[in-house]
Amino acid sequence: MQPLIDALIFIVDDDASVREALAWLLRSRRLVSEQYASAEDFELRLAEGPLADQPHCLLLDVRMPGMSGLVLFDRLAERGLLEVLPVIFLTGHADVPTAVDAVKRGAFDFCEKPFSDNALVDRIEQALGGSLRAVEAQRARRLLLRRVEELTEREREVMRRVVEGLPNKLIADQLSISVRTVEVHRARVFEKMEVKSAVELANLLRIV
Fold this sequence. Notes:
208 residues; alpha/beta; five-stranded parallel beta sheet; 9 helices; 5 strands; 56% helix; elongated
């Protein structure tokens, strides 16, 4: 299954027995995990650098000593990480309303303890699928930005006007260059951006 290739699941729970049980479950499904005993420890992991270019998922306990899972979740949301790092809350019965509220605010889902192994793994796989799509979208955006950076300033000026739908004659008048020069720049833009039409170029640039 493609989303599971090179996937990494983070387990953040203050209960060592829960962490070990989850890690064992994931290993049995050929899923790699990392364990953290507190939200603070996981934040230190994130502070080491950006997440690798791979699918991720976070299994997060709601109640923990020190920083709660909810506070960590809010910090992840503020940093815009919820798409590439979907959060599945692990919650006791008393915390279900809180977990439901977190889902409304962007958490992927919650699983009530004791949870069904199969149901949890199913949701993890679905979360990894969403993470993979987000990772691929970020990768495509970085590639597109590199292509734009490779354009000359004149090519960018022509590109902006092509995307606006202006004809070559009007572009030439606005930039005080010949129509032939516009045609040359336009062709180079299409080649560097790997598109064949102005419509395709405009659609591509929407993700920048």
